[in-house]
Every structure is written in structure tokens, then in C-alpha cells.
Amino acid sequence: MNFPVIPTSTLIPDSAIPGDEKFGLKIVRFQSDKKAQEEFLGSRYEFQHEIGRRHKVPGVVLALKGAPPNYRITATIHPTLREFVEIVKYNPANPPGDNYDAIGMATAHEQTQSDFKGAKKENLAHFRNYNIEAISGERTAYLPTVSGWQSSAVFDQTIFVAYDETNEMSLYGILYLPKAPVMQSDGQTQTAALFQAAETGLAIKAGALDHFGTTLEIELNVDEIKAGQSFADRNGRGSKKNKNLVSRLDNSSALAIIRERSVKGTIFEGRLADGRTGGASETATKHIVDLSTMDQMLLNVICKGNKKPEQIKHHHVERFVPYCHEFLLLLQETCGPQWPDPTPKNHEPYRRLYIHGWAFAQKALALAYHEAMRHKIEPLGAGLGLATDHSTPNEQIEADRELVEAAKADAPSPALPLEELKDRLNKIDWVRYRKHWIAVTGHKIDKEGNKKTREIKDGTEGGRKLILEGQAQNTAATIGFVLNKILSSTWTDLCSNVDAKI
């Protein structure tokens, strides 16, 4: 019989273990430090006796991911189904209501964790059944790595014992991980399915809790800002995730910085819908546009929407912020008085009344501003999309500068002066049920195939007015038509106050 080693001297406190300069956490160098090896084998470290506070996870690879100076610290482990559930704690389909909140994870939960409804709920059932089939021996389980993170609030309690230090980018050994939840950055459905599979009678009877293997990558030292950025980076490129939520959580891209600085001090500040706090529907008035629409508007100002957000780099920020900010002030001056929140008594919500409350018109106005300022803006964008695969940051900046200087020497003429554009926008009648706007957008159709009408408040006590309901299709064709009409010699057609015929 083996008896536990009982220390005969004072235990080495956790605070005495040095924090590693590169990895950031407390590391016991078992391979390279003979004294540390002796202390560990003699069970003389305090953390070896704190089994209630930490999970002891052998066979772990602690690694640096990415590039300096912004390395991410990850621990890749291979737990059994029982260990997975015990370590993760956080079931995204049934999250704990207290302990993740206590360590500062509540905000991240609200931002990045989706509700299991509709198609996602169906997918959960499919993955659960897949795991059960694997447990019963009907199939081989090809499970992806679940990616999660643990809060920075418990990072100082994390300890790693390094058995193999030969790779300077990764260490192999034992991880002493705080018993705090691990929230998913990727693999929510897989995680929830594993939790459900672990609760089945089959898993218990078949011994799957101790023999079903999984892989979990845990990112350490993550706060809610990093968690949001991780979500944005993982879901924002080439995916169909909620673009407003991705935009809200993206704090590092050049376009996000341009947006934040351009919106400040304008009517749009505090009035951008982000996918979690309400939207920009016909009757909603707090939010003028959503984040995704604002990003597209700013791209239209910068490059007529011809470049992808990731092609705008940080050295472009200073040159484009003044123009983006000026455009938003132009909208504030022209349309702001007609965007009240809340809606005044006896009036209708502004998107029910005005074309300029809708995304297609706002995007068209951004393009019109670009055309009025293209002699200044287009040369500044000459280097957008410049190949950067084989250049250092300084080389990229210099190449971009040379392209800009060359473009300035051959700048295009503006489609019309900015002051002329402002004058036109102030004279246009933006009421959406006017005859000229119905000609652009078309009208809605009721169930019988007839023109759809609506009775609206006319601004007086008890007053009503019957109007023809126009459409608000956010299509390239509609955006292009509005743009071309504003810039054309027939722009005065948009100044009429004649309502569409019902």
C-alpha cells in the first residue's frame, strides 16, 4: 500500500513560485531546475496539497500562440468525458447562474454565448446523438477540438510544472488549473452535446465517463475585452455570424477604430444597434443604424465599398477619420432633426416617415459624399489592398505613401462640389410615401395583390392620414438608383411634395 508523502517542513507557498517572463504564469521548472525537481518530488509545494482549489491535469502542452508582442497563452489537454465536464463547468446550453458571474464572466456570456433555439437547438440534438452512437460503438467519434478560455481573475492561481522545456514555444507537463468555469470561444454546440451525453445512462453504464476521450484547448488570462475580440476574430471573416455583434466586439481592426472615432460627438454616438441591445426596425427609434450598416457606410466614404474591411490598415486611420466624421456631421445636419427618440406625441416613428432613416438611403448618401470629395479621398486610398505578404510594416507604410503621392498628382475631379451636395440634400423631400420615392423603391403589396396602404398619424391631435406604403429594400440596385438621382441633373425631381397615388 502506498501512503501519501506527508511534508515534515513548512510548505513552499504559491507566492514563492516565480512568474515566467514569457508565459506569464507561475512555472515550476522540473526539467531544468534540480532543486525544484526535488521539492516537487518531495511534495513540498503548497499547491500540491490544495486539491480542492485546482484540477491536476497531466499530459498538458502549454504553448504561445500567435506573434509577439501579442502572444496568447493556451493549454491543450485531453480529458475524459468526466474530466471535461468537471473542468469546463460551463454548459452553454444551461449555464451556471452564479459562479461564472462571480469571476467577471457575465458580460462575456451576454456578448458571445448564443441561445440554443431554432436550428442551433436542432444541431445540439444531432451532436448529442452522434456522441451517444460513438459511446454505444456504432461509430468512431471524430470530434473537433473545443476552444475555451478561463478568466484573468483566476490566472494568478494557475501553476504549471514543466517536464519538457526543449521547445521554447511550448512546454509539456502538469497543469494545476483553478476550478473555475471555462467558457467557449469556439465549439459551443459540441460542448453542450458532451454535457448532455455525459448525463445519459448509457455513458454511465458503458464507462464512457472515464474512457471517452476529448480535446480541449484553454486560453489563459482572458478578460471580457479579449473574449470579445476572440469572438470577433473567429467569427468576423468569411462567416455568416451576427455581423453587428462581431463589429461591437472588434476593438482592434482599423475600421473599428475609424468608426469609434468618427461617431464620437455626432448624433450617432450611443445610437448604433449592436445585435444585443435592440435593432433598427421600422418602429425602433433609439438606434439610427446598426453597426454593420455603419461599417458599410464608412467603407462607402473611404473607397466606395470596393475594399474589404481587413484591407484598411492602422496607418490609414488618421487620414480617413476626418472625412468619415465630416460625413456623419453632414447627416446630422441634414437628417438629424427628423430622427427624434422617443417619437413625439401624435407623430409616427421616423423610419415610417422618411427615406433617410433606412440603410439603403444612408449608404447612397455615403457614396454621394465620396463622389463630392473623391479628389481628396481617392488618392488617400491608392494603397488600400496593397499586397503585404513579403513586406515589413515599415516597408508597407512606405509603399503606401509612394502610391498616395503618385495618386495625388492625378486626382479625379469631384462629381459636384460638397456645398452643392449639401444644398441638394437640404432641398430634397425625404418623405417615403411621396410619388418620387415610390417610383424608386416600389410599393408593398397586400394579401390580395393590391397596393398596401397604411393609416398614419399626421402630427395633430387625433389626426390621421392614409398613405401608400413604400418598400425599403437594401439592394445594390436601389442604392445605385438613389445615388445616381441625387448626383444627376434631374435631382430636383426629388423635391416634390406630391404623395404617391393610392
Outline the low-pLDDT stretches. none
Number of DSSP E strands: 12
Shape descriptor: elongated
Helix coverage percent: 25-40%
Distance between the termini: 94 Å
Main sheet attributes: strand count, strand direction, barrel closure: 8 strands, mixed
Counting DSSP H or I runs of 4 or more residues, the number of helices is 20
Strand residue content: 5-15%
If you average the pLDDT, what whole number results?
89
In spatial order, strands of the major sheet run 1-5-6-2-3-8-4-7
Describe this structure in words.
The structure is a single chain. The protein is of the alpha/beta class and 502 residues long. It has 20 helices and 12 strands. Helix 15 crosses helix 16 and helix 16 (374-380) packs antiparallel against helix 17. The longest helix is centred in the middle third of the chain and has 19 residues, at 317-335. The chain is elongated and about 95 Å long. The N and C termini lie far apart (94 Å).
In short:
The chain is α/β, with parallel strands linked by helices and 502 residues long.
Core attributes:
20 helices; alpha/beta; 12 strands; 502 residues
Secondary-structure topology with pairs:
Blueprint: E1 26-29, H1 34-41, E2 54-65, E3 72-77, H2 81-88, H3 99-102, H4 106-112, H5 118-135, E4 146-151, E5 159-167, E6 170-178, E7 183-186, H6 188-198, H7 201-205, H8 208-211, E8 216-222, H9 224-235, H10 243-249, H11 254-263, E9 272-273, E10 289-290, H12 291-303, H13 317-335, H14 350-353, H15 359-372, H16 374-380, H17 393-408, H18 418-427, H19 435-441, E11 453-457, E12 464-468, H20 476-487
Parallel strand pairs: 1-5, 4-8, 9-10
Antiparallel strand pairs: 2-3, 2-6, 3-8, 4-7, 5-6, 11-12
Helix pairs in contact: 4-9, 5-6, 9-10, 10-12, 11-12, 11-13, 12-15, 15-16, 15-20, 16-17
